[in-house]
Design brief:
Blueprint: H1 2-20, H2 29-99, H3 103-107, H4 127-140, H5 144-157, H6 164-177, H7 181-194, H8 201-214, H9 218-231, H10 236-245
Helix pairs in contact: 2-8, 2-10, 4-5, 5-6, 6-7, 7-8, 8-9, 9-10
């Protein structure tokens, strides 16, 4: 028994001695450097690729920002041009509606005679002509309140007189200037509905459409513009109405 344990102990000591005498593995320094160099190169390549991607993204952002600014400028330019066109159109519409009738046309004459002043003692003029002259003289002198009253009296006293169409037209303008759009619309409509042969029918329709637009009734304005274009396509009023329809 003792011999057996002694043998086991001896074998254990020999094994431990053999293990203890085994040399530790030696790592080559060049191999370590190579590994480190490889790792550094790999990291440098990765960093370089990331930097390239970042620079590319920055270039794309700059390009898009430039395009966005250019598009914004173009949009603002188009909007400005559109506003200028609409302003010019409104100016032309106003000129056409207000200046469509000359002073001579609005003043009116009867029998080819000069209207002269508003002196009711002039026996060469009829009562109707004298009444119209008085109203028009007030209108010309910018006595608009008196002119409005006088023209109302004229169309009431002489509803079928040839100058009544002009009187309704001027009344419409006076009401429109006072922002009395409902009364203005009534007067302009009376021009072409009661006097179908009048030469200012297209101008009255243009003013009626413009009055509806000023009052905010775009549906009626569009309807009247369309009727004007259909009835008078070759007149200045008709052409302006056609252009105006594009903005409604």
């Amino acid at each position: 028994m003792t011999y057996r344990y002694t043998k086991i102990i001896a074998l254990s000591l020999l094994t431990a001695s053999a293990v203890g005498n085994t040399a530790a593995p030696v790592v080559d320094g060049k191999a370590v450097e190579a590994i480190q160099q490889y790792q550094e190169n790999d990291q440098n390549q990765l960093v370089g690729e990331l930097m390239r991607q970042v620079m590319q993204l920055q270039q794309e952002v700059s390009y898009l920002r430039g395009k966005s600014e250019e598009q914004g400028y173009q949009i603002q330019k188009l909007q400005r041009q559109q506003k200028e066109l609409y302003a010019d159109l409104d100016r032309r519409l106003t000129e056409a509606s207000q200046g469509g009738l000359s002073g001579a046309e609005l003043s009116g004459t009867e029998g080819g005679e000069s209207t002269g002043g508003a002196d009711a003692s002039d026996q060469n003029l009829s009562d109707a002509q004298q009444a119209y002259n008085k109203a028009f003289s007030q209108f010309s002198n910018k006595e608009y309140a008196f002119a409005k009253s006088s023209f109302k009296s004229f169309v009431k006293d002489y509803p079928k007189h040839p100058l009544a169409a002009n009187a309704h037209y001027i009344l419409g303008q006076l009401h429109s200037n006072d922002k009395e759009y409902q009364q203005a619309a009534f007067e302009f409509e009376a021009v072409y509905s009661q006097f179908p042969e009048t030469e200012i029918k297209d101008k009255a329709m243009l003013k009626l459409a413009q009055t509806h637009e000023l009052s905010g009734n775009k549906a009626e304005a569009k309807k009247t513009y369309q009727a004007l274009v259909k009835a008078f396509p070759n007149t200045t009023a008709g052409k302006l109405a056609k252009v105006k329809l594009g903005s409604l």
